[in-house]
C-alpha cells in the first residue's frame, strides 16, 4: 500500500478474522483504523485492546468524517447502512480481499491455501519464522495463542497470509510461495464440482513465477494433475520428518511438515533445531482442537472449528487417540453446528459417516449465514443419517437446547467437544464457566 494514499480506513465487519488482522496490520503501518461489527466477540475485544476503536452495531453515523476508504467483509451486503453512507458521501469502497491483494502485490508473499489445515499451518509457519528472527508479517485465520493475536507484525517485505479459495479470493494474491495443504470439494455453493475448485487452484499455481515455489503433497489425487507444466519449483512437504508437537492428530503432523518446508524456502539459513523447537512449543490457535477447561462436574470440554466432513472425522479420531493415550474410557459427546445449507446438503453422506469416533452426537440448527433455508435439508435430517451409521444422534432446536442437553447428558469420565463454524463455541464457553 502507498503510505501517502488513504490515511483513514473504516472496516465494516471488523470482527471477521481476516478483517481484524488486516486492520491491525494497517494500524501498525501508521494508518488510522476504526470499524464496526454486529456484536462484541473475543476478536473485537482484542482489537480494542490494541487501540482500534470498534462500534458494536452497524449504523451510517459510525463512518467517521474524513474516511478515505471503507473496507468491507464479504459477509456485508451492499445495503448495509455503513456501505450506503459511504456511497452517498463518495467514499471509496474495497473488499477485504481486494485490499489484501494490494498489500500482497508489494511484498514477498507466502500464501497458505488448501481445504484443511490452513490456519494451523500458517500459525506454525509464523511461529517458526519469528523464532528464526525472520522479520515477517503474518495474517492468520484465528487467534494464535503464541502471539495473542491473529496478526504477527514484521518490518521486512515477507508477508505470510492464509489464503481463501472461496469466490476465487485466492487469485487476488500474488504469492512467490504457494502452500497447498490438501484439496477436497468444499464451498459447494460456489464450486459446483471438485473440478471447478481445482480450476481455481490451477490458476493460482500457474501464477507462481518461475523463481517461486509450490509446497504441497504432489501425490494427492486432487492436486497431482494441477502441477503439470508449472514454472515454479515443486516441493513435497511429506519428505519432512515427523515433529514432536503439542497438538494431536496425524493431520497436524502434515500441517507441521508443510510449515517446515515453507520455512526452509523463506529462510534457507534456518536450522533444524529452530524448526523443531518452534513446532514443539507451538500452542495452537483459537477454535482448533482447543481445550476450554472443565465443567463443574470435572468433564473436559474441547472446541474445534471443523465444519467439513473430513475435518470432523480427523478431529474426532485425534480426540479418541488422545483419550486412549491418557487411559480415559468415558464417552465422547459431540455438539455439531452445521455451516451452510448447501454444504450440509451436498456433503450429507460424508457428514453422516464422519462421526464414527463419537458416542453421542447433538446437531444444532444449521448456521445458514449467507444462505436461505429452502427446506431440503435440516439438522434433523442429518441426525437421522448419522443414526443410520450406528451412532446415537439427535437434533436440537437451538444452541440453548444444545447446552442444556450437554449438561444433562454428560457424566464424570466423559468428554465434550463442540464443533462447527458458527457460534457453537459459546456453548463450550458457557459449560466451563459454571
Kindly describe this structure.
This protein has a seven-stranded mixed sheet, with helices on both faces. A six-stranded mixed sheet has the order 13-14-18-15-16-17, sandwiched between helices. The chain has about 425 residues and is α/β, with parallel strands linked by helices. Helix 3 links the parallel strand 4 and strand 5. The longest helix is centred in the middle third of the chain and has 17 residues, at about 250-265. It contains 14 helices and 18 strands. It folds into three domains: about 10-95, NAD(P)-binding Rossmann-like Domain (Rossmann fold, 3-Layer(aba) Sandwich), CATH 3.40.50.720; about 105-280, 3-Layer(aba) Sandwich (UDP-N-acetylmuramoyl-L-alanine:D-glutamate ligase), CATH 3.40.1190.10; about 290-430, Protein-Tyrosine Phosphatase, Chain A, CATH 3.90.190.20. The mean pLDDT is about 95. It starts with 7 loop residues before the first strand and ends with a helix. It is about 35% helix and about 20% strand.
Topology record:
Layout: E1 8-12, H1 17-28, E2 32-37, H2 42-49, E3 53-56, E4 69-72, H3 81-88, E5 92-95, H4 96-105, E6 108-113, H5 118-131, E7 137-144, E8 149-152, E9 158-162, E10 175-180, H6 194-207, E11 213-216, E12 233-236, H7 250-266, H8 272-281, E13 290-294, E14 300-304, H9 309-325, E15 332-337, H10 341-346, H11 348-352, E16 360-363, H12 379-388, E17 392-395, H13 399-409, E18 415-420, H14 425-432
Parallel strand pairs: 1-2, 1-4, 2-3, 4-5, 6-9, 6-10, 7-9, 10-11, 11-12, 14-18, 15-16, 15-18, 16-17
Antiparallel strand pairs: 7-8, 13-14
The coarse overall form would be globular
Q: Summarize the biggest pleated sheet.
A: 7 strands, mixed
Q: Which superfamily, in CATH terms, is the homologous superfamily of the largest domain?
A: Mur-like, catalytic domain
Helical coverage, percent range = 25-40%
What's the β-strand tally? 18
Order of neighbouring strands in the sheet with most strands: 8-7-9-6-10-11-12
Total individual domains? 3
End-to-end separation in angstroms reads 47 Å
Number of helices: 14
How would you state the average pLDDT, rounded? Answer: 94
Which stretches are low in confidence, meaning pLDDT under 50 for 5 or more residues running? Answer: none
User: What structural class do you assign from the helix and strand content?
Assistant: alpha/beta
CATH structural architecture of the largest domain: 3-Layer(aba) Sandwich
Q: What is the third-level CATH name, the topology of the largest domain?
A: UDP-N-acetylmuramoyl-L-alanine:D-glutamate ligase
Strand percentage lies at 15-25%
CATH top level assignment of the largest domain:
Alpha Beta
**Rg from Cα:** 22 Å
Amino acid at each position: 500500500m502507498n503510505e501517502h494514499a488513504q490515511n483513514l480506513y473504516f472496516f465494516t465487519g471488523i470482527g471477521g478474522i481476516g478483517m481484524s488482522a488486516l486492520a491491525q496490520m494497517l494500524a501498525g503501518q501508521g494508518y488510522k483504523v476504526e470499524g464496526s461489527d454486529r456484536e462484541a466477540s473475543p476478536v473485537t475485544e482484542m482489537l480494542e485492546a490494541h487501540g482500534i476503536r470498534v462500534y458494536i452495531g452497524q449504523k451510517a453515523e459510525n463512518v467517521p468524517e474524513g474516511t478515505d476508504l471503507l473496507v468491507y467483509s464479504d459477509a456485508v451486503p451492499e445495503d448495509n447502512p455503513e456501505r450506503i453512507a459511504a456511497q452517498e458521501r463518495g467514499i471509496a469502497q474495497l473488499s477485504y480481499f481486494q485490499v489484501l491483494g494490494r498489500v500482497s502485490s508489494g511484498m514477498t508473499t507466502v500464501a497458505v491455501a488448501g481445504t484443511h489445515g490452513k490456519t494451523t499451518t500458517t500459525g506454525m509457519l509464523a511461529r517458526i519464522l519469528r523464532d528464526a528472527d525472520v522479520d515477517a508479517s503474518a495474517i492468520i485465520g484465528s487467534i494464535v495463542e503464541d502471539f495473542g493475536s491473529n496478526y504477527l507484525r514484521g518490518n521486512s517485505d515477507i508477508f505470510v497470509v492464509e489464503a481463501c479459495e472461496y469466490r476465487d479470493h485466492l487469485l487476488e494474491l500474488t504469492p512467490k510461495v504457494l502452500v497447498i495443504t490438501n484439496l477436497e470439494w468444499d464451498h459447494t455453493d460456489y464450486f459446483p464440482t471438485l473440478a471447478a475448485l481445482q480450476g481455481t487452484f490451477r490458476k493460482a499455481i500457474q501464477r507462481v513465477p518461475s523463481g517461486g515455489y509450490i509446497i504441497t503433497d504432489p501425490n494427492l489425487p486432487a492436486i497431482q494433475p494441477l502441477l503439470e507444466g508449472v514454472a515454479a519449483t515443486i516441493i513435497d512437504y511429506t519428505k519432512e520428518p515427523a515433529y514432536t508437537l503439542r497438538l494431536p492428530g496425524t493431520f497436524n503432523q502434515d500441517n507441521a511438515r508443510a510449515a517446515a518446508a515453507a520455512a526452509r524456502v523463506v529462510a534457507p539459513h534456518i536450522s533444524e533445531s529452530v524448526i523443531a523447537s518452534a513446532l514443539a512449543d507451538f500452542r495452537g490457535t483459537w477454535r482448533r482442537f482447543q481445550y476450554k477447561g472443565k465443567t463443574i462436574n470435572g468433564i473436559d470440554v474441547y472446541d474445534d472449528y471443523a465444519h467439513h466432513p473430513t475435518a470432523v472425522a480427523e478431529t474426532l479420531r485425534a480426540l479418541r487417540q488422545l483419550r486412549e493415550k491418557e487411559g480415559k474410557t468415558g464417552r465422547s459427546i459431540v455438539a455439531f453446528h452445521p455451516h451452510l445449507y448447501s454444504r450440509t446438503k451436498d456433503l450429507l453422506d460424508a457428514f453422516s459417516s464422519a462421526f464414527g469416533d463419537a458416542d453421542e452426537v447433538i446437531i444444532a440448527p444449521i448456521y445458514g449465514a449467507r444462505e436461505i433455508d429452502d427446506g431440503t435439508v435440516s439438522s434433523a435430517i442429518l441426525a437421522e443419517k448419522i443414526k443410520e451409521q450406528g451412532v446415537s444422534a439427535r437434533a436440537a432446536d437451538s444452541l440453548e437446547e444444545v447446552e442444556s442437553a450437554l449438561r444433562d447428558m454428560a457424566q464424570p469420565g466423559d468428554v465434550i467437544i463442540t464443533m462447527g463454524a458458527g457460534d457453537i463455541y459459546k456453548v463450550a464457553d458457557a459449560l466451563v464457566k459454571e
